[in-house]
Amino acid sequence: MAKTARNKKSRKKSAKKPAAKRKTKATKSKAAKGKARVAAKTKKKAAKKRTRKPKPQSIGERLSGAVKAVVDTFADAEALRRKMEPRGSDATE
């Protein structure tokens, strides 16, 4: 019987509080704040977009590219030789 008397007293005390003194502002509990922090830390990062690989070159494309490189090298060498050679000289090596 002692337990029931205590419970009644505690109920009466909480019931006697005036409404003005009760908290009206809703606040997050500590557990909810902790969960929000953990969620923010463990948030998944966006996946990076994969770069598309260029289409592999065929044998013909590779050969034509190599031939163009060689021809361009010779053309550039010839242009440089003409630029460096003094005017009016016929001496070629």
Quickly describe the structure.
By secondary structure, the chain is mostly helical. The chain is built from 3 helices and no strands.
* Average of per-residue pLDDT values: 76
Query: How many H/I helical runs?
Result: 3
**Unreliable stretches, pLDDT < 50, 5 or more residues?**
none
- Please tally the β strands and state the result: 0
Major sheet details: none
Measured between the Cα atoms of the first and last residue, the distance is 124 Å
Beta-strand proportion: under 5%
Which series of helices and strands comes N to C? HHH
Q: Given the helix and strand composition, which structural class is it?
A: mainly alpha
The helical percent reads 55-70%
Rg measurement, Å? 44 Å
- Could you say which overall geometry the principal axes of the C-alpha atoms support? elongated
Compile the SSE list and pairings.
Layout: H1 2-16, H2 30-41, H3 59-84
Description:
The chain has 93 residues and is mainly alpha-helical. The protein has a domain at 59-83. Helices cover 57% and strands 0% of the residues. It is built from three helices and no strands. The protein has helices spanning 2-16, 30-41, 59-84. The longest helix has 26 residues, at 59-84. The chain is elongated. It starts with a helix and ends in a 9-residue tail after the last helix. The relative contact order is 0.04. The model has no long low-confidence stretch (mean pLDDT 76).
